[in-house]
Recover the amino acids of this structure.
C-alpha cells in the first residue's frame, strides 16, 4: 500500500514527541503529501504519557482514525499502558495497531515477542542508545550522552522513515529548519541521529519489512502546516487587531504567545493580565478607546469573564473579540482535553440580556476567516463577538493552501471623525438612529466627549432608571443581532455538505466537521447515504435554513463532543424540530473518523436514540 | 482659555449633602482647569458605588465601569491611546476589596495614569457596611457589630505593589487635594492618591469633627502635612538601590501613623520607565503615535504564511 498511513509516537511528556511528529509531518507536506496531526497529553510537565498521531494520505485527511499502522514507542508505557500503577489510566497502544502494522521500540527493553500478545504485527526493536552514542561520537559528544538523551526521538523518526521508505532528504530539511542560528550545530547532530535510525532500519529490517510505503507526489500550489491557534492569531493580525490580553491557560495561551512573538512586525500590544476578569475588561477598555481588541481563554477563564462580557454588552463596546478555546469541564475537568460543552455557556454567559455574536469555525481555515469577520462585526454592530473553538482545533496541525485574502476588507462600522463631529455638535454616543446603530466616537476626538456606563443610560450615556428609556435602549441593543443576521450571508451561517437529497442528515458544529466529513465517506461505502448540516453561526442563528434542511430529512442525527447534545437542544429551541438521535462523546477526546461511522451506523441499524462513544 | 464650566455637566447630582465626594469632584475639575487640559484629551474612569458616578459630573470622556474593574478598563484604554490623560477613581471597597488583585497588579505595571481612592471606611451605596480600610474594632452607624478584621493600609499596599507616586490627601481640604492631584497627574508613571473622606450618612466615627481633632484634649487637627515636617519621599536616583529601598521603608513607616496624628502629602515618588515606555522599546511605532491612530486597513500577513509553508 502506498501513501495511506497512520503513525503514532508516544512517550513520557518531555521526551520531544512534538518536534519529531511535526518534523515528520513537514517532510510529508514537502513531498506533496497531506497530513492531519493531533496530540493528546496530560496536565503535567514531565513524565506522564502523551502521544501524537500523524495521518498521511495522498488526499487531504480531515480527521484521525482509530488505528495505527506504525507505532513508535519511546517507552514501555506507550505499548503496554500503566496497568502496573495503583490507579491505572490506559492499556497502551499496542491494541490499536492495524493487522500487519508494526512497532518501533527500544531493543534495550529486551521484550519477548510473546509479551505483545499479538502475532499479527511486526516488531522493530531498535537499539536507541547504541545508535545515539554512535551519532554523538561523530561530533565528539558521546561523553555527554545524558545531555542529548532526548535525541532518541529523532533516531526513531529516522527508523520510521526508513521503514516506509520515504525520502530522507525531506526529513533532513525539516529538522534543519528547526535549528537555526546558534542552534545550527544541534541540527546537524539531530540529522546524524535520524540518519543512524534510518540506516539501521534499512539494514536490519530490509526493504520490504513494512507493508506501507510513502512516496513523494508532485507538489501543487504552496501549502502551509498550521494549527488552530496560529490560524486565529493570524486572523487577528490581518483584521488589524492591536490589543490582545490573556491569562495563562491551556489550551489558549499558545495563541497569545504566537501574537507576542510577532508583535513588533504588526504593532500589537499583548498584555498578560492578572486574571481573566482583568483580561476581558482591559480588552473592552481598548475597544472603547478605538483599538481593535481581543482576548483569548478557555472555559475556566471565560467563567471569570462573564461579568465583563455583560459590561461590554450594555455599553455597546465595539468588541472585544473573545476566543473561547473549549476544553473538558466543568471546573478543572480534563484540562488538556477537548470538549464542545460551552455552547450554551457562550450563549448565556452574564446576567441580563444583551446581544452577542457567536461563531464556531469547523476547521483551521475557518478559524482564520471567521476571526477576521468577527472584528468587522464587533465594530459594525458594537457587540462582543465570541469565537467558539476548542482544544482539538487549537492543537491539530493540518496542511492547507495559503489563506486567500482577496476581497477581505476591514469594516470599522460607523466610526466618526473629528470633521463629522464638528459638523454636528451635541454628540450622543447612544443616539437612537433609523439604522439602529449609534455613530461611534473614541476618546481623544474633539467634539466626541461621551459617557459610558454599565447602568442603563440615556443617549448621552448618563445613568437613567426611566422605564421608557429602558425599553427603548433594550430594544435598540437586542435588535442588533437581527441587524447582523440580515447582513451576514446565509451561506456563511450554515453549510449543507453532501447530497441535498440524502435520507439522513448529520448535524454538527465546530471541530467535529472533519471527522463527520470523513465518516460520511465510510458510511457511503457501506451504502448509507448522508449529508451534513454544519452550523457555523450560533448567533445569529440560521433558523430558516436549519428548519428547511431538517424538515426535508428522513432522519436527523446530532454529532457532538459533549454529553447533552447542546446544539440539538438549541435547534429545538430555535426551530421546534427535535433531532432524532444523538451521537455524543465526552471523554475529552475528539471524534475519530471511525467513531462517526460507528455511531451513525448504530443509529441507523438499531434506531438508537443516543450513542455514547469512547474509542479514546 | 478653558473655564470651570467647561469641565462641568448638567447631570443631577444625588450624593448626600456634605458627602466628601463633592470635594473630590471639585478638586478634579479645578485641577484639570488649572492644567488647562482639554476635555476631549481626558479619560475619567470610575468603579461602582457613590464615587462611581463621578465621571457623569465631569465634562470629559467618562467611563463608569464595573465594581472593582476600573483599573483594567482604564489600563486598556490608556494603552490603546497613551496620549490621553487617564484618571481613575473608585471607592475603598472597589479598589481594595473586590478589585484588590487589580490594584496590586496595576501598580506593578507602572502605567502612566492616576488612581484616586475615595477612602471613607464604609460601603456607602449599599448602606454602610465596613469597607476594607475600616480599622479593626470599629463599628460605624449601620454595622450590627464592630469589625473583627484588620483594616488595609492603602499607602503601604501601594508602595509594596509598585506605584511610583504614592500620596494621601483629604477630601475637605480641596486646596491640598488639588495640589496633590496635579502632582499625581504630572507624575510619569502610576500615581496613587488615597483621599481620606467623610461619609456623613454612614461613617459616624471618622467625621469632619474627628479629622479636626475636636475629640482630642489638644483640639489639634489630626491631619498634618508631611512636607511641613521636612519629610522627603522623592527618590533622586532610582538606579541607586539603597536610596530606593530606604525611601520605601520610610514611606511604609510613615503610612502606619494613624490615630491622633495622620500624615497627608507625598509619601513616595520615583520616576522610572513606564509600561508604555517599555512597550515602545519593543514596538518603536508606538513612539510615533498611539495605536488607535495607526492604519489597520492593509496589513500584510504573507510573511507569516510563508513562515508556515
Amino acid at each position: 500500500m502506498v501513501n495511506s498511513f497512520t503513525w503514532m509516537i508516544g512517550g513520557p511528556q518531555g521526551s520531544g514527541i512534538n518536534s519529531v511528529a511535526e518534523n515528520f509531518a513537514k517532510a510529508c507536506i514537502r513531498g506533496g503529501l497531506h497530513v492531519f496531526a493531533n496530540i493528546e497529553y496530560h496536565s503535567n510537565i514531565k513524565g506522564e504519557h502523551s502521544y501524537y498521531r500523524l495521518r498521511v494520505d495522498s488526499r487531504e485527511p480531515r480527521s484521525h482514525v482509530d488505528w495505527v499502522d506504525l507505532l513508535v514507542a519511546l517507552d514501555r508505557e506507550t505499548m503496554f499502558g500503566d496497568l502496573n500503577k495503583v490507579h491505572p489510566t490506559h492499556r497502551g497502544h499496542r491494541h490499536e495497531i492495524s493487522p500487519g502494522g508494526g512497532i518501533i521500540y527500544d531493543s534495550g527493553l529486551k521484550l519477548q515477542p510473546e509479551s505483545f500478545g499479538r502475532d499479527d504485527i511486526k516488531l522493530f526493536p531498535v537499539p536507541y542508545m547504541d545508535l545515539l552514542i554512535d551519532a554523538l561520537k561523530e561530533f565528539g559528544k558521546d561523553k555527554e550522552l545524558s545531555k542529548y538523551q532526548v535525541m532518541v526521538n529523532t533516531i526513531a523518526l529516522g527508523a520510521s522513515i526508513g521503514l516506509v521508505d520515504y525520502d530522507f532528504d525531506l526529513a533532513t530539511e525539516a529538522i534543519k529548519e528547526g535549528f537555526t542560528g546558534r542552534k545550527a550545530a544541534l541540527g546537524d547532530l539531530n540529522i546524524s541521529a535520524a540518519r543512524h535510525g534510518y540506516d539501521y532500519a534499512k539494514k536490519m529490517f530490509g526493504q520490504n519489512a513494512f507493508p506501507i510505503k510513502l512516496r513523494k507526489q508532485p507538489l501543487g500550489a504552496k501549502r502551509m502546516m498550521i494549527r488552530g491557534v496560529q490560524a486565529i492569531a493570524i486572523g487577528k493580525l490581518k483584521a488589524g487587531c492591536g490589543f490582545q490580553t490573556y491569562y495563562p491557560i491551556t489550551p489558549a495561551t499558545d495563541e497569545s504567545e504566537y501574537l507576542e512573538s510577532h508583535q513588533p512586525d504588526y504593532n500589537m500590544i499583548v498584555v498578560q493580565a492578572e486574571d481573566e476578569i482583568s483580561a476581558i475588561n482591559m480588552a473592552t477598555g481598548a475597544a472603547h478607546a478605538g483599538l481593535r481588541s481581543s482576548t483569548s481563554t478557555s472555559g475556566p477563564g471565560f467563567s471569570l469573564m462573564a461579568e465583563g462580557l455583560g459590561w461590554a454588552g450594555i455599553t455597546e463596546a465595539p468588541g472585544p473579540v473573545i476566543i473561547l478555546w473549549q476544553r473538558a469541564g466543568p471546573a478543572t475537568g480534563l484540562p488538556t482535553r477537548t470538549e464542545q460543552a460551552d455552547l450554551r455557556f457562550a450563549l448565556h454567559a452574564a446576567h441580563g440580556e444583551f446581544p452577542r455574536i457567536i461563531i464556531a469555525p469547523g476547521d483551521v481555515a475557518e478559524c482564520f476567516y471567521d476571526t477576521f469577520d468577527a472584528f468587522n462585526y464587533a465594530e459594525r454592530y458594537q457587540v462582543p463577538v465570541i469565537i467558539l473553538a476548542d482544544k482539538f482545533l487549537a492543537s491539530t496541525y493540518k496542511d492547507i493552501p495559503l489563506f486567500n485574502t482577496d476581497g477581505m476588507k476591514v469594516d470599522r462600522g460607523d466610526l466618526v471623525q473629528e470633521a463629522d463631529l464638528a459638523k454636528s455638535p451635541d454628540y450622543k454616543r447612544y443616539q437612537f438612529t433609523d439604522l439602529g446603530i449609534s455613530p461611534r466616537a473614541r476618546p481623544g476626538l474633539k467634539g466626541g466627549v461621551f459617557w459610558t456606563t454599565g447602568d442603563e443610560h440615556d443617549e448621552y450615556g448618563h445613568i437613567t432608571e426611566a422605564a421608557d428609556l429602558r425599553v427603548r435602549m433594550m430594544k435598540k441593543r437586542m435588535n442588533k443581532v437581527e441587524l447582523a443576521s440580515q447582513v451576514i450571508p446565509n451561506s456563511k451561517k450554515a453549510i449543507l455538505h453532501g447530497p441535498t437529497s440524502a435520507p439522513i442528515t448529520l448535524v454538527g458544529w465546530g471541530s467535529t466537521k472533519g471527522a463527520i466529513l470523513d465518516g460520511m465517506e465510510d458510511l457511503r461505502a457501506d451504502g448509507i447515504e448522508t449529508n451534513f448540516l454544519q452550523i457555523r453561526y450560533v448567533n445569529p442563528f440560521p433558523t430558516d435554513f436549519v428548519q428547511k434542511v431538517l424538515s426535508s430529512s428522513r432522519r436527523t442525527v446530532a454529532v457532538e463532543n459533549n454529553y447533552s447534545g447542546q446544539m440539538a437542544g438549541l435547534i429545538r429551541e430555535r426551530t421546534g424540530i427535535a433531532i432524532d438521535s444523538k451521537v455524543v462523546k465526552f471523554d475529552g477526546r475528539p471524534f475519530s473518523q471511525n467513531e462517526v461511522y460507528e455511531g451513525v451506523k448504530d443509529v441507523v441499524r438499531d434506531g438508537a436514540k443516543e450513542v455514547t462513544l469512547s474509542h479514546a | 482659555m478653558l473655564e470651570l464650566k467647561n469641565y462641568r455637566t448638567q447631570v443631577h447630582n444625588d450624593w448626600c449633602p456634605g458627602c466628601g465626594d463633592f470635594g473630590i469632584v471639585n478638586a478634579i475639575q479645578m485641577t484639570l482647569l488649572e492644567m488647562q487640559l482639554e476635555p476631549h484629551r481626558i479619560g475619567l474612569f470610575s468603579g461602582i458605588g457613590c464615587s462611581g458616578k463621578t465621571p457623569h459630573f465631569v465634562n470629559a470622556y467618562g467611563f463608569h465601569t464595573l465594581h472593582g474593574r476600573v483599573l483594567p478598563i482604564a489600563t486598556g484604554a490608556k494603552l490603546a491611546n497613551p496620549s490621553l490623560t487617564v484618571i481613575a477613581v473608585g471607592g475603598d471597597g472597589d479598589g481594595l476589596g473586590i478589585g484588590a488583585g487589580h490594584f496590586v497588579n496595576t501598580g506593578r505595571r507602572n502605567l502612566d495614569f492616576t488612581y484616586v481612592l475615595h477612602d471613607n471606611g464604609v460601603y456607602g451605596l449599599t448602606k454602610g457596611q465596613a469597607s476594607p480600610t475600616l480599622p479593626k474594632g470599629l463599628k460605624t452607624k449601620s454595622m450590627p457589630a464592630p469589625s473583627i478584621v484588620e483594616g488595609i493600609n492603602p499607602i503601604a499596599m501601594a508602595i509594596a505593589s509598585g506605584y511610583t507616586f504614592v500620596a494621601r490627601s483629604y477630601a475637605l481640604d480641596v486646596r491640598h487635594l488639588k495640589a496633590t492631584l496635579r502632582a499625581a497627574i504630572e507624575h510619569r508613571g502610576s500615581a496613587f492618591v488615597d483621599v481620606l473622606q467623610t461619609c456623613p450618612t454612614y461613617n459616624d466615627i471618622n467625621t469632619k469633627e474627628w479629622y479636626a481633632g475636636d475629640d482630642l484634649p489638644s483640639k489639634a487637627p489630626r491631619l498634618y502635612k508631611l512636607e511641613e515636617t521636612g519629610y522627603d519621599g522623592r527618590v533622586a536616583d532610582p538606579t541607586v538601590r539603597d536610596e530606593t529601598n530606604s525611601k520605601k521603608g520610610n514611606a511604609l513607616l510613615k503610612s502606619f501613623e494613624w490615630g491622633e496624628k495622620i500624615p497627608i502629602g507625598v509619601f513616595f515618588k520615583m520616576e522610572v520607565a513606564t509600561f508604555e515606555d517599555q512597550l515602545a522599546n519593543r514596538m518603536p511605532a508606538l513612539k510615533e503615535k498611539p495605536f488607535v491612530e495607526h492604519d489597520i486597513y492593509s496589513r500584510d500577513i504573507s510573511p507569516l504564511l510563508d513562515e508556515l509553508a
Remarks:
- Chain B has a mean pLDDT of 97.
